[in-house]
């Protein structure tokens, strides 16, 4: 890891429905924004199918590279929900009914509703720590630095607050956006010069089409507001020289 102070994470989105295009992934954005607020930088995202060996290999690869790994998807009650068993195998842990998870789900469902299918949601590495689910009862879990969350976006989002205290982050990552009325080719060289002068600020440019006109969003990201401010000053300078209109700033 390049910088001892830099806390980095990887995200694994698991699900054939994401790869097929039937379901749109919004969990990457949700997790990334949340981690940024904790001072944890996402450095890699992988989208993989519901295939056991692929899950095992990906988890084992990323958990060695990053401080934290977050998985999304595959911990539900259906036959293709194989993430929990795959995580057990990745860590060489016992995969069985988790006593605490069983207790939570028995209290959540009415008598007779805790069916065999739903009981599958309590199967996970027996040594795992639970991640409580305030929305639909079925808990997620974590083993060492790997945190396993459901694929349903609203449920995943509701569970993040419950694990913030388990993470050690760095300084929160700040973001500033300047939307301008131009095309990327017009500012490419000038923006490269700003990046060269400010190596410790992430600078990205993203074209957009709004109100029938083209534009570019320049996004600056750093843990230090002063460093972002330096970049803004340099960007404003070339914007003025090129007589480029600013759409908005945020």
Would you kindly provide a written description of the structure presented here, covering whatever features stand out?
By secondary structure, the chain is of the alpha/beta class. It folds into two domains: 7-166, Molybdenum Cofactor Biosythetic Enzyme, Chain A; 174-249, Ribosomal protein S10 (Alpha-Beta Plaits, 2-Layer Sandwich). 36% of the residues lie in helices and 28% in strands. It contains nine helices and twelve strands. The chain has helices at 16-20, 27-37, 52-65, 83-90, 99-108, 116-119, 153-160, 184-197, 225-241; strands at 7-14, 40-48, 68-72, 95-97, 123-125, 129-131, 140-143, 146-149, 174-181, 202-210, 213-222, 245-249. Strands 2-1-3-8-7-6 form a six-stranded mixed sheet, with helices on both faces. Strands 10-11-9-12 form a four-stranded antiparallel sheet, with helices on one face. Strands 4-5 form a two-stranded antiparallel sheet. The mean pLDDT is 92.
CATH architecture of the largest domain: 3-Layer(aba) Sandwich
Question: What is the CATH topology of the largest domain?
Answer: Molybdenum Cofactor Biosythetic Enzyme, Chain A
The fraction of residues in strands falls at 25-35%
List how many beta strands DSSP finds: 12
Q: What's the CATH superfamily of the largest domain, by name?
A: MoaB/Mog-like domain
Q: SSE string, helix = H, strand = E?
A: EHHEHEHEHHEEEEHEHEEHE
* Derived structural class: alpha/beta
Rg over C-alpha atoms, rounded to the nearest angstrom: 22 Å
Q: In terms of per-residue confidence, which ranges show pLDDT below 50 for 5 or more consecutive residues?
A: none
| Distance linking N and C termini | 31 Å
Side by side, the strands of the main sheet go: 2-1-3-8-7-6
How many helices? 9
What's the CATH class of the largest domain, please?
A: Alpha Beta
* Overall geometry: elongated
């Amino acid at each position: 890891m390049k910088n001892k102070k830099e806390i980095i994470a990887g995200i694994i989105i698991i699900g054939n429905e994401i790869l097929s295009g039937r379901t749109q992934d919004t969990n990457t954005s949700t997790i990334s924004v949340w981690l940024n607020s904790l001072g944890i930088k996402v450095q890699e995202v992988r989208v993989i199918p519901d295939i056991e060996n692929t899950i095992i290999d990906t988890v084992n690869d990323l958990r060695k590279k990053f401080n934290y790994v977050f998985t999304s998807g595959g911990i539900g009650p259906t036959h293709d929900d194989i993430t929990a068993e795959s995580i057990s195998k990745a860590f060489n842990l016992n995969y069985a009914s988790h006593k605490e998870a069983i207790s939570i789900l028995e209290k959540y469902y009415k008598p007779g509703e805790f069916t065999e299918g739903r009981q599958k949601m309590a199967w996970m590495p027996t040594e795992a720590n639970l991640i409580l689910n305030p929305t639909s009862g079925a808990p997620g879990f974590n083993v060492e630095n790997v945190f396993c969350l459901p694929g349903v976006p609203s449920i995943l989002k509701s569970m993040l607050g419950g694990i913030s205290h388990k993470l050690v982050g760095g300084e929160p990552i700040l973001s500033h956006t300047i939307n301008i009325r131009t095309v990327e080719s017009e500012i490419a060289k000038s923006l490269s010069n700003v990046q060269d002068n400010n190596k410790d600020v992430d600078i990205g440019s993203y074209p957009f089409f709004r109100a029938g006109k083209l534009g570019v969003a320049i996004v600056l990201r750093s843990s230090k507001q002063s460093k972002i401010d330096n970049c803004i000053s340099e960007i404003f300078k070339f914007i003025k020289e090129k007589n480029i209109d600013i759409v908005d700033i945020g």
